[in-house]
């Protein structure tokens, strides 16, 4: 059985039925699985998804303080920019293009640490990375951890129900997980520690990293704009942390066929290019599925790609030593052939 078929912890309702069709669990089944997997008292190996949602819960008070005490035009503007643009773009730069796909390489560990901590920490790398490899291997097929065809809740709660790694991997298979995570800079558990904690990441190091990141950013925001700015931006991070969990449902057209000729070129799944995620976070999702290892996904001139601009800037100053850019391949393999088919006499 291929490694990506079993590297994730299968939900109690399973990925597919005996005929190989996608299992679409009920809302009751999804919520039951969700709360079961958050229960660290019954199984301490549930600590990582529990930590991910604990961060969200800890950000919510800041959001309510922002709404009740600091709702001014400048804090609203700051919160909008931080949640919609800065947090979103950082997610694309760090979790998506670097941690998962290795689309670029840093000059040294300092620049990796710098980029990792550019924003308030909200999503554990391990939860994102391993499951995203599975997502690309099984996009819109049974086993895809956020298969939009199974509904909104299936995607929204996927980080708990479908994305954690399996708890019974052999040492050989765990070593393969380590290879997928090694470049992220997250210090791994030993195999014995993995058996104890059910994860690549160590809970003590993750909590210390979380405390350090939040303490640093609250202090910086406070020094710039007092509690008003700090609470507003921490609240904005909480808003983003909830909203980002809806992305793959929307990015795969809610499980429907909504691809458009001349806009969406990757026809092997239901991914689509969307204007808003593209503009604010460089997440041109269909383009990304076309060339997942590319540091740029906004290939056409009008496709604004803030994540790519950051990577390119870091390359110019020497912080990034190499990157992959598939723009030329896109034009040769897809754009020009499509233009010739639609406009036979066009000069390309």
TrEMBL record:
It is a multi-pass membrane protein. It comes from the Bacteria. GO terms for molecular function: oxidoreductase activity, acting on paired donors, with oxidation of a pair of donors resulting in the reduction of molecular oxygen to two molecules of water. Residues 72-293 form the Fatty acid desaturase domain. GO terms for cellular component: membrane. Keywords: Fatty acid biosynthesis, Fatty acid metabolism, Iron, Lipid biosynthesis, Lipid metabolism, Membrane, Oxidoreductase, Transmembrane, Transmembrane helix. Coiled coil: none annotated. PANTHER family: ACYL-COA DESATURASE, DESATURASE 1, ISOFORM A-RELATED. This is Acyl-CoA desaturase. It comes from Mucilaginibacter robiniae.
């Amino acid at each position: 059985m291929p490694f990506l078929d079993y590297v994730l912890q299968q939900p109690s309702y399973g990925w597919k039925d005996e005929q190989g069709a996608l299992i679409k669990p009920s809302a009751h089944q999804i919520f039951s699985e969700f709360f079961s997997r958050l229960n660290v008292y019954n199984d301490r190996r549930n600590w990582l998804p529990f930590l991910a949602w604990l961060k969200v819960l800890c950000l919510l008070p800041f959001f309510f303080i922002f709404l009740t005490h600091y709702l001014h035009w400048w804090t609203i503007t700051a919160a909008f920019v931080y949640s919609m643009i800065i947090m979103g773009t950082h997610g694309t730069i760090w979790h998506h293009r670097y941690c998962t796909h290795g689309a670029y390489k840093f000059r040294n560990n300092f620049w990796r640490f710098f980029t990792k901590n550019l924003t308030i920490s909200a999503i554990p790398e391990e939860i994102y990375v391993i499951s995203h490899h599975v997502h690309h291997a099984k996009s819109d097929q049974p086993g895809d951890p956020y298969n939009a065809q199974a509904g909104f809740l299936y995607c929204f709660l996927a980080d708990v129900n479908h994305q954690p790694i399996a708890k019974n991997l052999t040492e050989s298979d765990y070593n393969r997980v380590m290879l997928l995570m090694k470049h992220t800079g997250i210090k791994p558990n030993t195999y014995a520690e993995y058996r104890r904690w059910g994860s690549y990441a160590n809970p003590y190091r993750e909590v210390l990293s979380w405390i350090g990141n939040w303490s640093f950013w609250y202090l910086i925001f406070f020094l710039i704009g007092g509690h008003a700015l700090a609470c507003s931006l921490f609240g904005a991070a909480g808003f983003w942390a909830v909203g980002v969990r809806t992305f793959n449902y929307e990015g795969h057209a809610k499980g429907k066929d909504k691809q458009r000729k001349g806009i969406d070129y990757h026809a092997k799944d239901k991914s689509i290019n969307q204007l808003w995620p593209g503009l604010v976070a460089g997440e041109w999702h269909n383009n990304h599925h076309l060339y997942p290892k590319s540091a740029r996904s906004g290939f056409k001139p009008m496709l604004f790609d803030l994540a790519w601009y950051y990577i390119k800037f870091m390359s110019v100053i020497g912080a990034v030593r190499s990157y992959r850019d598939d723009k030329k391949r896109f034009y040769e393999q897809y754009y020009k052939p499509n233009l010739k088919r639609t406009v036979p006499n066009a000069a390309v």
